[in-house]
């Protein structure tokens, strides 16, 4: 196993004191690697609020320690945080990306994006019992429940990537294209794609407002349509 999946990176900065303290507190003192990772997954998913209104051009929003300190972040930063926490407790981890069609948004975000396709949507790829398993800690439980979704669970045995359907059975997210896995966040490649696909959003350096409230209102309107 390459040390790059255990060592701190520029964005997966698993040596940062706050990441180390958070990971150690989340896992407690007991349990095997699987039990520790499951605790970390839930801690990252629910302790850091999903918020894509952050400045998507700011490297801090891609870095594990900065996202943890802010208490909010979007999928890329949260996946980096989970990877960093896994490395803290000795479990190899990396980050992966895929393009998805996503309805878990707000009308205003979709307007500025100009599309419902999210390029470089991120997950964490974790080595457990000799196999790489994908986990997506992006969407916190409170947000999911307010949107009528079951929180995305992870059992450490099978991939956990998307909410394919909402509770009413309607298609919610679609997997479009895999972009592979990386030992650290490929910031430059992501920036190039974001500037191409989301020029209007990137020019604003983040949106002001309450993403969760707007997303819930937008979902209510979608259900009534």
Lay out the secondary structure.
Layout lengths: L16 H11 L5 H15 L1 E2 L13 H7 L1 E2 L1 H14 L4 E10 L4 H7 L3 E12 L2 E5 L5 H6 L26 E10 L4 H11 L1 H6 L6 H14 L1
Parallel strand pairs: 1-2
Antiparallel strand pairs: 3-4, 3-6, 4-5
Describe this structure in words.
It contains nine helices and six strands. It has helices at 17-27, 33-47, 64-70, 75-88, 107-113, 141-146, 187-197, 199-204, 211-224; strands at residues 49-50, 72-73, 93-102, 117-128, 131-135, 173-182. Helices cover 40% and strands 18% of the residues. A four-stranded antiparallel beta sheet has the order 5-4-3-6. Strands 1-2 form a two-stranded parallel sheet. The mean pLDDT is 92. Strand 4 (117-128) and strand 5 (131-135) form a beta hairpin. It is α+β, with helices and mostly antiparallel strands and 225 residues long. The longest helix has 15 residues, at 33-47. The protein starts with 16 loop residues before the first helix and ends with a helix. Helix 1 packs across helix 4 and helix 3 (64-70) crosses helix 4.
